[in-house]
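Hi, does anyone understand the following?
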Amino acid sequence: MPSLGEYGSPDLVPEGREVNPLNSPLEVGVRALVLLAESHPEPLDLGQLVVLDHVLLHSGEFDGPPSLHPGLPARAGELGMKRAVLEQALLVLIRAGLAGVVDRREGLMYAATDQGPVFVDVLEAPYAGFLRERAEWVVHHYFPGVDTRVATRQIVNRATAETGHE
């Protein structure tokens, strides 16, 4: 079943096709917004968001709270796919006025607008609460001092070692 991310927009979904919301720009966008709201007003770049989203979901593997998603053997390729969907998700957040682009010396970064944290605060589902708890941990306890490139390499190496592939 294709995800919304494969079509980029609900208007482009062929008639009669179902859209899987799992790992769609909408789901990934909610997680990205929770991370951006927690780091607000500090912006994050795309690479940081990719790593933080992964650690948010698999926090138990990083000495954090229990993981929200199970560890799957094919995780090595997860970061590359996540990056593409995350780019689409950020566009959704920007169009909704919940996030914006910040031009920094280091490059383009993303930040929650003032409405972003307010939107996150009104989410009432238990899963949203679990996301907020892990976002607080990942942004304030895991992330400070983490080099994104090194963390990405460690995530890929860990997943590769677990599957026995190199």
About this structure: DSSP finds seven helices and two strands in the chain.
